[in-house]
Design a protein that fits this description.
The complex is a heterodimer of chains A (about 120) and B (about 110). With about 120 residues, chain A is mainly β. Helix content of chain A is about 0%, strand content about 50%. By secondary structure, chain B is an all-beta fold. Classes of the chains: A mainly beta (about 120), B mainly beta (about 110).
Amino acid sequence: AQTVTQSQPEMSVQEAETVTLSCTYDTSESDYYLFWYKQPPSRQMILVIRQEAYKQQNATENRFSVNFQKAAKSFSLKISDSQLGDAAMYFCALKPNFGNEKLTFGTGTRLTIIP
Amino acid sequence: SAVISQKPSRDICQRGTSLTIQCQVDSQVTMMFWYRQQPGQSLTLIATANQGSEATYESGFVIDKFPISRPNLTFSTLTVSNMSPEDSSIYLCSAPTANYGYTFGSGTRLTVV
């Protein structure tokens, strides 16, 4: 079984500043994918970034990057130059690379952007 | 990536009635997933729907309460049966995409009164 833990229920950051959201996980699988999803008030789940466990290089997508520490089972999300539109719930999620392809989600972090 | 159209977007229902939520995917997908998201909480998987076979339900969810149909590779429905106020939640469908990510429907906000 997999578990995903997000220890920060809420975070806030000044507009244009940088914020890091934490995520730790546990799995017995050696091959898996990790995701960060964003859910704004519209309820739509939006994929922010994806990391393949067998890749050592940290994934980046424009202002979003991750710090993937496989041995520590840590997968944090860094948002640079925060914008008002970044305000949302952020969910960390894990999926094994085979078998039943269901996602295991963390409990989420609510990010507030301060103008 | 795939796009999922989910409807209705919201509904207010009387207790004891049933509501069917529909998800249409713009491409063929082998599996679809149905989630429940209670207010302010994370997503909880209800069941996995495969075309041509019965859905696989997670612990705590049963077919009589949440019957699922999957008539083809682009469509699925979830019915919330004999509703009570405790069923008030957001319900989301999801499907895998080609790049190992997942796409989600826009969610159905259900209020049971």
